[in-house]
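Structure tokens please, single chain.
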Amino acid sequence: MAQMRMNWPPFTRNIMGLAVVLFLLWFLSIPGAPLEGFVADYMLVSSQAVVGEFQIWTVITYSLFHADFMHLGFNLFVLWMFGGRIDDSWPAKKWWTFNALCALGGGVAVVLSQLVFQSVHPTLGYSGAVMGVVAAFAWQHWNRRIYLFFFPMKGKTLLLVFIAIDILLVVGAREPISIAAHLGGMATGLLIVTGWWRPRRWRLIYDRWRHKKHREKFKVISRDPESDRWVN
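Here you go.
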């Protein structure tokens, strides 16, 4: 009888180092810790912090802190599950740049969503970067079968599962702002790994569209000698 095998991703040096740093920052910011007030006042992202108080740096620093140990542990678990092999195959500079950009995309999404929904709740956590890594993993396995907790699916299905979970959180909690960082980080990750962020890519699409419109406008018309009719 055939047995299904799952190869667990490696614990890379970068992920282990990140876990240590995030744990120390969480420990130093828990209630009663030295950084508690400083983090609450200057490190968390919100529309009020960025637009009202010009704390622009919070669109990235929010990702370094977590509400509680379960919040931190879940983010690190998902990061290891889907980022272990990516980190193992990417250069360190690419890995850290990708994480930082996805965290930034999540922070910007939080601010924009709060401006739209008129909310000022501070947001924290590494979830934006984590969801960017999940998006990169899904893109690498877009049409390949993978296993999510022993359930077989393709990478594109995995991405839809995470999006569906976020939508259910929105419907259940009636708070779309709370998962803005997730979707912002995921969208940023997809833009990077697919190459859609490059202006040259958009320029090429525009040129193709304009060329198609030009051809449709100036179609060559000729006379069919047999039917004596004008045809394209």
